[in-house]
Amino acid sequence: MFKSVVTRALTVLYVGALLVACQVEKKKRINFPPTDLAKENLIPKPLKVVPTNKAFGLDRYTAIYTTQDTQGFSEVGQFLADKIKTKLDLDVPVNAESDVPIERIIYINKADSLELDSHEAYQLYITQDSILLNSSTAEGAFRGIQTLRQLIPEESNDTLAEQRIWPIPSGKIFDNPNFGFRGSMLDVARHFFSVEDVKKYIDLLSYYKINVLHLHLSDDQGWRIEIKSWPKLTEIGGSTEVGGEAGGFFTQEDYKEIVAYAAKHYMTIIPEIDMPGHTNAASVSYPFLNGNGKTPKLYEGTRVGFSTFDTAKDTVYAFIDDVVREISAITPGPYFHIGGDESHVTKKKDFIYFVEKVEKIVQKHGKRMIGWDEIASANIDSTSISQYWSSGDNAQKALKKGMKVILSPAKKTYLDMQYDTLSKHGLHWAAYIPVDSAYVWTPEEYEGIPMESILGVEAPLWSETISNIDELEYLAFPRVIGYSELSWSIKENRDWENFKVRLANQAPYLDRMDVKYYASPRIDWKKSKYTYKEIQKD
Ligand code: TNX
Asked: How far apart are CA 190 and CA 243, in angstroms?
């Protein structure tokens, strides 16, 4: 099967090569030192890697060609060219004439084959003369591009040729994710983060093939998304955040910009409006929503569980209908997250009634409902999804209803947990989560939840203790890199000792991206020309 794919792809490649043949003026083959593709610092680890020990030289005589009759492929090619330009300051033409003779090509090819029928699967064939990236979808090609980016050295080798040249190890990579849902969550409610911050987070996450960003858009301390039919939500509810800082919110235009940016990175945005608890900011804005019997006041502390919507009023559901409608209309992804956690002052029967009503609203607006694990106590559809964060019992209830589960166990995946007693920022109510503990567990076998019921893994970043992007990066990195491997790579390909070395080698990339990661002393970080700080001590 691989053979036929290769043959077909090579035919395409050959035609592509012919097109440029008139420009090609064969030069002497460069003698690269031997390489080993299997030892490259790829994260997440691909399914299968076969080294052939030679190298492809990326240089100014390289061009990118792509399938052009299927939407998305040339954009993926351009994405690669843009990243090469920022990383190496090298211009690589995409489906275009070149001013210089082309000697080597990168071909991004739409291929149809059985191995590639999963939409994120891709194959990379790297030889001395060409790099062929096969995928049946532009999304798969985009994932493959991330692998290729990671194979391009930060530094050129200036001894091999007159021009600067970056050797890429030759061989074959066959890859496909273990979980289709590889998520992260950002709480923009406790502290607000700007569109620019969110975009930078998307850049970093997508480099590691994470494909879902869940935005926690409302909580007691703030409402962060413009709702045109209920303007006070952001005017009043968006004006505060934890610690008395300024707050803020996304206009619908801002949100659309994030969604579009995410889409360009083949990432799905999941909007969350947390209810019936965690709703103080909404109730301050519109007091008729409030159901806890007290007059709601703006709140800048970090307690949870004191607020609730009034679950008995029709007007509350009319309000929720507007909110879900407006957000769903600008959310292309299939999901709407209704929160549902820690509704400690909502009576159990009211909570159940509420979740069942809201599920219908979400479905009416064409979305699939997700909620934190508590929602499984309501009588809801098997199509709704439960996000496991603390309760094995709730997970079992969800399984009995035939629901899928997203794994976000607090003691393993909460990015807001401190690394250890001395690390800055974060809480520790669930656990201290050092870098190894975040990585060394098996989602496929967690709490007896069968693999076929697991939608994927998601790492939430709650923001009570962080108020800017540097602090966000400190908690998220490097742990989120481990979650990317936990959700993309199969169990047999995961090993802490091996991961640890590949992680250490992410430092040049993280430093170049100006990521203020927590330089855990458990990792022997690689120094780079960008290194910005001393390694922190435990
Ligand atoms: C629990 S996890 C919460 C959040 C807090 C977080 C802090 C969950 C569904 N609810 O409201 O921000 O702990 O770690």
From this structure: 9
Q: Atom 7 in ligand 1: which residue has the minimum CA distance?
A: 462
Residue-wise over 419-450: b if at least 16 C-beta within 10 A, else e? bbeebebbeeebbebbbebbbebebbebeebe
CA 462–ligand 1 middle distance (angstroms)? 7
Catalytic residue, candidates 226, 326, 342, 473: 342
Domain with 120, as residue range(s), is 2-175
Residue 338 corresponds to which tokens in the numbers above?
A: 């209704």
What phi and psi, each to the nearest 5 degrees, are found at residue 157?
-100, 115
CATH number of the domain at 384, please: 3.20.20.80
Return the best residue to mutate from 188, 462, 465, 466 for the ligand 1 pocket (most ligand atoms within 8 A of CB).
462
Question: What secondary structure letter does DSSP report for 28?
Answer: P
- Ranges in the chain, pLDDT < 50: 1-12, 14-15, 17-25, 532, 534-538
Q: Are residues 40 and 125 in the same domain?
A: yes
pLDDT for residue 200? 98
Pocket test for ligand 1, best of 342, 416, 463 (most atoms within 8 A of CB): 342
Residue 85: which residues within 8 A CB-CB, separation 6 or more?
91, 92
For residue 28, the model assigns a pLDDT of: 65
Which ranges constitute the DSSP H helices of 268-422?
280-285, 314-329, 348-364, 392-400, 410-413
How far is Cα 106 from Cα 113, in angstroms, rounded to an integer?
20
Rounded to 10 degrees, the C-alpha dihedral 372/378/380/386 comes to 20
Residue with CA at minimum distance from ligand 1 atom 10: 341
